[in-house]
Design brief:
Elements: E1 20-24, H1 29-40, E2 44-49, H2 52-64, E3 68-73, H3 79-93, E4 98-101, H4 118-144, E5 152-156, H5 168-189, E6 194-200, H6 212-219, H7 230-241, E7 252-255, H8 264-272
Parallel strand pairs: 1-2, 1-4, 2-3, 4-5, 5-6, 6-7
The structure holds NADPH dihydro-nicotinamide-adenine-dinucleotide phosphate.
The site of NADPH dihydro-nicotinamide-adenine-dinucleotide phosphate has 28 residues, from helix 1.
């Protein structure tokens, strides 16, 4: 039996013609860019977002550009809303091939960890981690039934789930998402569904509105000399959802300009310090 298509499937520029895709948090930022990329390559996309009106505006804009898109208001922390959103995709498009778990919650962390409120942890874990579980649970039967074994989940993680960058509860949720990705990859493999995770570094999205100077500072810390753009992540997500990735499942793909390979704080501290002798390595 052939599952997950074939490695010979060629890139045509319309890799997702006849695919149906649901993107949570798809109204703006990385979710919007990802939805636009899928639509540009032929997919019908459902934008499921807490802000239903913004999602509809984005969907309308995709349609104006010649794509196929619908929108639905959906809080991924609400099981009923999640089930309804997946049902909407299946009813509107006749099935569901790809789920992108992109919605998240990121609370400010307390400087003193002993002051960390339960509410932050519960909300960040509920939206970021359990939300992805809820959407995956609802979507999996449909992904398993997808034509030619094309079913796939792509989770949007973060470098915060892989190293220390602050935002404790968000980071814990993102680390949990890496584990969930492996769990689902093994669980869903028998039905031909692949599950992977893209871990972005700093990406210029509306989430950074009002903090643009931080983006400029961050750019200087990245080995590749810039922060990421939403299109950088959309390219990785669509690769992992495509037939080109038909033998890739359970992986975490960092898309982060090299920041996990660098240690700018350590390097800066050493270069700013006074050396005991010039021979130090
Ligand atoms: P944005 O804040 O720009 O957009 C997120 C979208 O998700 C918004 O439309 C938001 O709606 C919606 N949303 C929020 N909560 C929920 C919910 N409970 N249910 C459904 N939709 C919801 O985010 P980004 O594009 O910056 O980030 C997208 C993903 O990328 C996230 O998973 C994030 O963790 C990850 N990421 C981003 C990085 C960055 O630097 N931007 C770095 C690393 C990872 P509303 O506007 O109403 O809140």
């Amino acid at each position: 039996m052939v599952r997950n298509g074939t490695a010979a499937a060629a890139y045509s520029g319309q890799r997702f013609a006849t695919y149906t895709v649901m993107v949570t948090g798809g109204a703006r930022g990385i979710g919007e860019a990802t939805a636009r990329r899928f639509a540009a390559e032929g997919a019908a996309v459902l934008l499921a977002d807490l802000n239903g009106e913004a999602a509809e505006r984005t969907a309308a804009s995709i349609r104006e550009d010649g794509g196929r898109a619908e929108a639905v208001g959906c809080d991924v922390a609400d099981r009923t809303a999640v089930d309804a959103a997946v049902g909407h995709a299946v009813a509107a498009f006749g099935g569901l091939d790809v789920l992108v778990n992109n919605a998240y919650s990121c609370s400010d962390h307390s400087e003193d960890f002993t002051e960390e409120p339960d509410e932050n942890w519960l909300r960040d874990l509920d939206v970021t981690l359990t939300g992805a579980m809820r959407c995956s649970r609802a979507a999996l039967p449909h992904l398993a039934a997808a034509t030619g074994g094309r079913g796939a989940i792509v989770n949007i993680g973060s470098v915060n789930g892989m190293s220390y960058f602050g935002n404790h509860s968000y980071s814990a949720a993102k680390a949990g998402l890496i584990s969930l990705t492996r769990t689902l990859a093994v669980h869903a493999a028998a039905s031909g569904v692949r599950v992977n995770l893209v871990a972005p570094g700093t990406i210029r999205t509306p989430a950074w509105a009002g903090r643009e100077s931080m983006l400029e500072t961050a750019a200087g810390l990245y080995p590749l000399g810039r922060v990421g753009e939403p299109a950088d992540i959309a390219a990785a997500v669509t690769f992992l959802a495509s037939a080109d990735a038909s033998w890739i499942t359970g992986v975490t793909l960092p898309v982060e300009g090299g920041i996990l390979s660098a240690n700018p704080g350590f390097t800066h501290a050493l270069s700013a310090g006074t050396a005991d002798d010039d021979e130090a390595p």
